[in-house]
Amino acid sequence: MIRFLRTFLFIGIASFATAADRPNIVLILCDDLGYGDVGFHGAQDIQTPQLDALAEGGIICTSGYVAHPFCGPSRMGLMTGRYPHAFGAPFNLPGAHHGMTAVDHEGIPEGETTLSESLQQAGYHTGAIGKWHLGASPAHHPNQRGFDHFYGFLGGGHQYFPEEYRPLYEKRVKAGVKRIHDYVTPLECNGKAVRESEYLTDAFSREAERFIRDAAPKEQPFFLYLAYNAPHSPLEAKEDDLSIFASLADDDRRTYAAMVYAVDRGVGRVVDALKDTKTYEDTLIIFLSDNGGNESLGADNGALREGKGSVFEGGHRVPMVFHWPDHIPSGRKIDYPVSTLDFYPTLLGLAKTSIPRGKVLDGIDLWEAFLTDRLPSRTSPIFTLRHRLGYSDAAARRDQWKICRAYDTKWKLYNLDHDLSESRDLSHQHPERVREMVALMERWSRGLPEPRWFDSPEVQSNWEETAMPHYDETFEINR
Ligand code: CA
User: pTM of the predicted model, to two decimals?
Assistant: First the structure.
């Protein structure tokens, strides 16, 4: 009888864990893609038919925010469900060529259970493809941080053409360079260097397709984190893709457009692989950018002010789409703020697994709100804090209101419902609102630890010499 009960329970749990109950999750991240650079946000000169089809069949989050206006901290926020500042990570990890030792031992702190670790523990087959940038030491390698499979590179960026970067790498090896620039090192598969031959975006799309084909027959659901480094610099595109955009006069814009087009083609490949393996209906696809576009490198953030690195909207509001046939509404736009910090609790909810004991999360489970189109109740504003040399930029969003202090100037207040471009400061009309939101942000900031690493020796020496982060000045209303 006991054996029968055990068997029954085992079957019960096993069937509970099939893909039909829990979706596969494909999380596609672009690098530095501008808000205005996708068809579904009105791009006129870049075609993204595959992304537009996902947007049309799913939900577009028009106010989708990342946790930081540049790469590393944004990705750490996504992968931990916490503001990166909360564990000392408001800066990118230094590139190997900077010679800073943090790169040898730092990454997402081991005490922070990652999204991938949680999904892996919940029985998901997990894969990361593309750019990592979450720690290059053995302890922080993707295979140690919740991914059964990894294909890509560990640093913050990479050249795109193997026939161009390989000779540069070999030359440096020959010259005895110890810390070779990340952008030219060989790609790897689960810790072993591989000899890639394709344009990187196409290589990552190919590997994503391979992962889906391997994962689909398994009993377990799968989680694929496909992190393209495109269209991040260096601006390098294939001739075939460039020819599609031959009418664009600006060289950077033409190359950038071709790079985005290659990503779109890859998204189509992912969708086709899901359909071929009959997993499309059981798969939640999420698409977004890790931060705003760099407008000095061909990107366009549409109506948003500024771009990558900024606490204005162009820095941290990104294209964001959720797609899952028959499970979420199609053709819907959601205008209330959604943060990548919400992904962790939302995805664990869909995976029917609990939040790890003791895990602190800064976001909320959005699923009910998505399904019912009701406003989610968020207890805290969404914060953006970017340390610069000698001062800190800061912003907070709640409902339609945004307070913003950039470039060491006074706090401003914007109503984003009427002023998406943040051009009309309403702080004098609503001083109480400014005071209240600044106070909330100050309370949060004061509890943050010192950075565990800096992205360059210059930033580190500035931090130390000017006694950063200067919160007294940052949160002084009348300064
Ligand atoms: Ca980025």
Answer: 0.95
